[in-house]
């Protein structure tokens, strides 16, 4: 594991340890959420099709639709709280939101800080670059400038996989990463499979393609740890909307494909409160 990643984990652990007890428990229970009448959900606002702002100024996307379904099942209104990738866990752990539906990749280091639900979506972490570039294996990234979103799953995956000689460029959000590729500031980018979908939608003739698949990522609802009741109910809701076809409809609506098979376990990532 890289030194930078160890520092991130240590910082997250310090954040949890330093939190006042009252804040750590804020709106943890279903009863607390129902008494308030709203469920505060952290979402992204610059990553189509997962979470973004429509031409009408509304937060929309895959994650938002799932959040609305969860709110409906809990019988409460949903208050969407837009945030950037790097701030997600801090916003959750300091009680600013009750849940995160913000393309939260389910990884062991994150599972030490937050409680994940069962996965509700999946995608691939890839390297994207110019069609004309001969990149067929990880070693071909040596000497390349690789753009990633700071603290995102792509950052972790690329940092661990990139060969010696690759330069990792970190940007504050996904839009900046894509712009770096388009402008030639980055030779390639660490992305997920929906990046190219967005680029092609805006630029049908864009000369970019998937070069490498780094890993498979599963997304779960993130909660503060320790609340078995909330975790159990969220998992029940995910099972319900999978069985009803509602989750598949969301996948087809936003990604134009059926819901992929979702894993029932991930090493180092418990889906239930232990």
Automatic annotation (TrEMBL):
Indicate the segments forming the Solute-binding protein family 3/N-terminal domain, all copies.
Answer: 38-258
Give the signal sequence positions: 1-25
SMART domains assigned: PBPb
Annotated transmembrane regions: none
Keywords from the named record: Signal
For this record, the Gene Ontology CC terms, alphabetical, are: cell envelope
Localization: Cell envelope
Q: Which Pfam families match?
A: SBP_bac_3
Q: Does the keyword Transcription regulation apply?
A: no
Q: Which PROSITE patterns has this protein been placed in?
A: SBP_BACTERIAL_3 (PS01039)
Say if the entry is tagged with keyword Signal: yes
Q: Name the InterPro entries on file.
A: SBP_3_CS (IPR018313), Solute-binding_3/MltF_N (IPR001638)
What family is it from? Belongs to the bacterial solute-binding protein 3 family.
Query: This protein is called what?
Result: Solute-binding protein family 3/N-terminal domain-containing protein
The species is Variovorax paradoxus
